[in-house]
Design brief:
Elements (H helix, E strand, L loop, with lengths): L4 E3 L2 E3 L5 E6 L8 E8 L6 E6 L6 E3 L7 E6 L4 E6 L8 E9 L14 E2 L3 E5 L2
Parallel strand pairs: 2-11
Antiparallel strand pairs: 1-3, 3-8, 4-5, 4-9, 5-6, 7-8, 9-10, 9-11
């Protein structure tokens, strides 16, 4: 059973940067698209960004466009979410999720993903 694991969360000041990583120990992510989602207290889980199995197609939520960047390194079996110009409203638990793809498929719908990590807390505060 594929398990994805997130890392890289923490406390950062407004305007700062963090890089989240998503891996799958013991499994290859070559055939999986990866999505990053976040959930703040009292709010629904929302899609932040996703990348297709090939790593060539990406999608971003409007709230993070131009600030967050997703990349997939199949050689390292890792997906990164580079988060810049962080704002207090970016504070949330961030989840990595994977879906098997026979062809490139871009989606930010949580229901389209089958394998979820435990989440990593990102707090943006002065």
């Amino acid at each position: 059973q594929l398990q994805v694991v997130e890392s890289g969360g923490g406390l950062v000041q407004p305007g700062g940067s963090l890089r989240l990583s998503c891996g799958a120990p013991g499994f290859t992510l070559d055939y999986y698209g990866i999505g990053w989602f976040r959930q703040a207290p009292g709010q629904e889980r929302e899609g932040v960004s996703c990348v297709t199995r090939s790593g060539t197609i990406t999608k971003y939520a409007d709230s993070v466009k131009g600030r967050f960047f997703i990349s997939k390194d199949n050689a390292k079996n890792t997906v990164y979410l580079e988060m810049n110009s962080l704002k207090p409203e970016d504070t949330a638990v961030y989840y990595c999720a994977a879906n098997y793809q026979s062809v490139d498929w871009v989606t930010l719908r949580p229901g389209d993903y089958d394998h979820w990590g435990q989440g990593t807390q990102v707090t943006v505060s002065a």
